[in-house]
Amino acid sequence: MAGIYIHIPFCKSKCHYCDFYSCTLLAKKEAVLAAVADELACRAGFLQGEPVRTVYVGGGTPSLCTPSELGALIGRIRDVYDVSGLQEVTVEANPDDLTADWLTALRVEGVNRLSIGIQSFIDRDLRWMHRRHDAASAVRAVGEAQRAGFENLTVDLIYGIPQMSLAEWEQNLGQAIRLGVQHISAYHLSVEPGTVFGKRLRRGALREIDPERSVAQYRLLHEMLTGAGFEHYEISNFARTGFRSQHNGNYWNGTRYLGVGPSAHSFDGALRQWNAADVRLYLEREPRQEHFESETLSEHAAYNEFVMTSLRTASGLDADVLERRFGARKLQYFTRLAVKFLAEGTLVRTGSAYRIPFEHYLISDTVISDLFYVE
Description:
Helices cover 41% and strands 19% of the residues. It has 375 residues and is of the alpha/beta class. It has 2 domains: 250 residues, Aldolase class I (TIM Barrel); 72 residues, Arc Repressor Mutant, subunit A (Orthogonal Bundle). The strands form 3 sheets. Strands 7-8-6-5-4-3-2-1-9 form a 9-stranded mixed beta sheet, sandwiched between helices. The chain has a 3-stranded antiparallel beta sheet with strand order 10-11-12, with no helix packed on it. The longest helix has 17 residues. It is globular and about 55 Å long.
């Protein structure tokens, strides 16, 4: 079964760490929403009739839209696609957008999962990241969502913040646990070149956290959340039993998905497409369906994609699946390279499954890239 991702690119202000495409051109919102609805209809063939299991509305800040605007997009999906197997409809939201009336109306539109971008419960760090909410409004937002009837809530947190102590990170995690949410995503602060933080780093006005503190914070993250009953099922994701993100699973297991809206990506197992990452270009080109570019993955690229996405998860990479999809020679290549990492303990094997132990997740990118096929 397939997934659909809708990108709502609008923000009131840009967070200092964010390198996802977004803009503050809110005057273009109505036009973009109309174009997204049109794109949903025009590109239905991309999923080749496959039933849709998940819908995810991300951004940007989708909660800048009214529930009826979001509902109209979900309604277009119901009109055009096979939604007989639809299980999960997620909307990302900023805490200070979540009023009781907005949340109640969103539930009526068929949204059953809410992703709340909290990032921190420390006001100092929220101001530093240029978030527009404070800690009190984050706690209030989760409570409002629960009172509105949302039973599948996920919150985002960020660690690796230079000025945040281990004790403060422990307080953040404790607060998230006490809120009673079903899912937590925790990401290490990444300083990307085009962001405000990237510019500060270049001119020496920002210093990144040292690796030892990163490791300590990650270990605490794993210990506290698993100790509280969460399953650590992917490098950055933790879930109560039965509450894994089904939509994100599409990206990790190679499921076909369609992305609509500025900068959205699509993938059908072999073909990758990406939309123009510019509102004006998107609006200009979408009516002619000339708003996206494409590439067909080579066999080697598809193999590398499989290795990367599989090893990000707790389930790991199944050697039997690798052989079935890519043949005996690719399996031999993988197992030969894996010997080094098995000896180091940065890779472990149970039966046909290879996985990276949680204590080495922070160096997973290095392990995974060294297992790629290189001609």
